Amino acid sequence: MTARPEIEAVTARIRERSRKGREAYLARLDEAAGQAVHRSVLSCGNLAHGFAACGPADKAALAGDRVANIGIITAYNDMLSAHQPFEPFPELIREAARAAGGVAQVAGGVPAMCDGVTQGQPGMELSLFSRDVIAMAAAVGLSHNMFDAAVYLGVCDKIVPGLVIAALTFGHLPAVFIPAGPMTSGLPNDEKARIRQLYAEGKVDRTALLEAESKSYHGPGTCTFYGTANSNQMLMEIMGLHTPGSSFVNPNTPLRDALTKEAAKRALAITALGNDYTPVGRMIDERSIVNGVVGLNATGGSTNHTMHLVAMAAAAGIRLTWDDIAEISDHVPLIARVYPNGLADVNHFHAAGGMGFLIRELIDDGYLHEDVGTIWGEGLRPYTVEAKLADDGTVVRLPAPATSGNAKVLSTAAKPFQATGGLKVLSGNLGKSIIKVSAVKPEHRVIEAPALVFHSQEEMQAAFKAGQLDRDFIAVIRFQGPKANGMPELHKLTPALGVLQDRGHRIALVTDGRMSGASGKVPAAIHVTPEALDGGMIGRVRDGDPMRLDAEMGTLEVLIDAGELAARENADADLSGNQFGMGRELFAGFRQLAGRADQGAAVF
């Protein structure tokens, strides 16, 4: 089944734009793949080092060239709730590999930081760059050239995009991504948000706030709201990098362990040593990238992926632009409502039919390319299922339910929550920016108000606490881009802005920084590019300038004469406080190299 003409047209445009880069990438991939079993190019000394710590059986297997070896790249640490469940995964994978006649080794670990811990803290200024560090760290692990396939253990914000960039850089190897699953449901997300706003107003104390947060983030697994971490899992499944139905199964359950073992066996089955060789660099193509963008819009996913998907695509020689994302958003209906786009969490989404229902709806209505490569083979249709545990402890798959288990959470393409996607690209005399419209009520999508300019989120929070913001305004927070300070998320502003909106004020945020992947009910034009430090017009806005943010028409304008705006000089900001502390001094080179947000904000 072919996709709708509108989707085909965007895909064709991406393919043509990417032709030269893609051809060069595939030529490099074929050259790497042509080296046959890669351990055969290692000297005896190389190989002896590579399996010195293995048991006798694994050593014997790796001494030859005909037994497949899986390289495990893990982002395990036991501080991140989402990544703590990965601790036993390497042994499960090794056991499954041996049972299938192969070998598995941990090739390397990559860093994994938690944006939830670093929100509003200096460490957040390392967050975006951690994606590229992860890609490079994974490359170091795979550079030993010992492996016939790789499996990637990662869940959260920058971690999965970094791992995808690494996987595509080693595109001659098959790649299987193995999720850990979401924590069970705790305190409802809307109640957590209510307590945060009360704390911002000084109506509850820190003890009450910590109690609410602890009831929300209460155990192992991914946070249950639909931010970047869970958007990552959606993307890995809709792009065919997960095994079908595996994204949102809770950790530490028999089904989760069975899915992990199955994924290891699948990685062995698709190496060049077998008959179903599936190098990830050929498997992921322009259609796969478009499917990811469709899924992001159909679910109201994270704004962070307007950068990550661009960077991920570039790693495979594919040029994705914000204009492509905007055009797809104009044609794709929003059919999922998960907090902050609704009241449900990802467990409710999964129970309502989850990814299998979502993918089937989008395929059947022509929004997805069905004829894509996946690690499972046979296109995307095999992903229209639910994974269950069979009596013998293996995985069995059943067709996704014919109807949604909760129409308030998961709907159909024929009866969408809104006719267009969850993300919108805004254009105007400040450049381009992104807004997540799916979480913003229609009455708040057009804001015209005077600008109030700040150079840090701390400045704005101080003004709020001093009672200076009880009015209509558009907060312009600049010098928050990749070159300025690493583009931190400004999610700490959400409670204060929510309080002001609830008081009846017309409020919006405009910034060259980021908001959380769970950007909420206040309209926020983020990722403004070019950024202030790169000569962007956002650096010329002054207090009191009339501004208009129109998320319906897709515009962001400062309403002053073009000549006056052009004649102004860009503001200066003292960024000396961003240069040191919490490791920021180690990232000075990254800040200098960082690309624009609309080009992926990458350092390579």
UniProtKB/TrEMBL annotation:
Q: What residue intervals traverse the membrane? A: none
Q: How is the cofactor bound?
A: Binds 1 [4Fe-4S] cluster.
Cofactors, names only = [4Fe-4S] cluster
Q: Which GO terms describe its cellular component?
A: cytosol
According to its UniProt record, which reaction does this protein catalyse?
6-phospho-D-gluconate = 2-dehydro-3-deoxy-6-phospho-D-gluconate + H2O
Gene3D superfamilies in the record: IlvD/EDD C-terminal domain-like (3.50.30.80)
Q: Name one Pfam family in it.
A: ILVD_EDD_N
Q: What does the entry list as the binding residues for [4Fe-4S] cluster?
A: C156, C223
GO: which molecular function terms?
Answer: 4 iron, 4 sulfur cluster binding; metal ion binding; phosphogluconate dehydratase activity
Which EC numbers does the record give? 4.2.1.12
**What keywords does the record list, in alphabetical order?**
4Fe-4S, Carbohydrate metabolism, Gluconate utilization, Iron, Iron-sulfur, Lyase, Metal-binding
* Residues of the Dihydroxy-acid/6-phosphogluconate dehydratase N-terminal domain: 69-380
Q: Where's the Dihydroxy-acid/6-phosphogluconate dehydratase C-terminal domain? A: 408-601
Which example biological process does GO assign this protein? Entner-Doudoroff pathway through 6-phosphogluconate
Its pathway is: Carbohydrate metabolism; Entner-Doudoroff pathway
Q: What does this protein's UniProt record list under function?
A: Catalyzes the dehydration of 6-phospho-D-gluconate to 2-dehydro-3-deoxy-6-phospho-D-gluconate.
Spell out the family assignment given in the record's similarity comment: Belongs to the IlvD/Edd family.
Extract the NCBIfam families matched here.
edd (TIGR01196)
Q: What PANTHER family has UniProt attached to this entry? A: D-XYLONATE DEHYDRATASE, PHOSPHOGLUCONATE DEHYDRATASE
> What's the protein called, per UniProt?
Phosphogluconate dehydratase
User: What is the organism field in this record?
Assistant: Nitratireductor pacificus pht-3B
The organism's taxonomy opens as:
Bacteria, Pseudomonadati, Pseudomonadota, Alphaproteobacteria, Hyphomicrobiales
| Gene that specifies this protein | edd
